[in-house]
């Protein structure tokens, strides 16, 4: 056998010349990686190039920087909108006007006129019932009512006037509390105020009919005060549901969920 390589005349034949002992799979005949190869980067070096002098550094991403208490960081609202301030004032005005109207109704001839109009219809039946009750006709109050219904109503007024004053003060205080918490952006109190406004609107028609029928000379003033009180209350509730009010209440709720008080 000849020791010369047939592919290279004049050169000794080397059976291992077509392979690499350290690489059993052989080498790329083209001498380089066909897929390209990037030089190894030292640890911590940006593989996409270095920052040029004078360029601002890119912001670092911190996935925990915007979290607080398990929720996204939310700043509480700093200023209440004018709509909630008007809601508080209108609800408070509704309570004051309603209290004044109730006091004027109590002092008017409304109850006397109502009692007198019904007395003629029930007088005979009432006397019959009193006659069957032993000792009833000797009661001073019964005798006063039988002789003069107007004097009897006036006597009741004098007894109930103190109780009515206390009731009206409590009523104004309740209106103030409802308006205060609505103005502060408490959603639960806003819902309660809405329910109360709906009830007042549903009952105002019957009140107006009663005032117009038995109010006498003061019927016009009493009707105006009643309507004004209801309108102020409804307007206050409407202001509490306007968009600025709702956005403030939603932001306040989100801030409370984030841990603010």
Produce a short descriptive summary.
The chain has 261 residues and is mainly α. The protein has 7 helices and 2 strands.
Can you describe this structure?
This protein has 261 residues and is mostly helical. It is built from seven helices and two strands, in the order E-E-H-H-H-H-H-H-H. Strands 1-2 form a two-stranded antiparallel ribbon. Helix 3 packs across helix 4 (149-183). It starts with 66 loop residues before the first strand and ends with a helix. 16% of the residues are buried. The model is unreliable at 61-71 (pLDDT under 50).
Sequence-ordered SSE layout with sheet pairings:
Blueprint: E1 67-68, E2 71-72, H1 82-107, H2 110-131, H3 140-147, H4 149-183, H5 187-214, H6 219-240, H7 243-257
Antiparallel strand pairs: 1-2
Helix pairs in contact: 1-4, 1-6, 2-4, 3-4, 4-5, 5-6
**Average predicted local confidence, pLDDT:** 77
Which radius of gyration do the C-alpha atoms yield?
Answer: 46 Å
What profile does the largest beta sheet have? 2 strands, antiparallel
What pattern of helices and strands is seen along the backbone?
EEHHHHHHH
The helix fraction, in percent, is: 55-70%
State the shape.
Answer: elongated
User: How would you write the strand order of the largest sheet?
Assistant: 1-2
Structural class: mainly alpha
User: What's the number of extended β-strand segments?
Assistant: 2
Strand content: under 5%
N- and C-termini, Cα separation: 99 Å
Low-confidence stretches: 61-71
Question: What is the overall number of helices?
Answer: 7
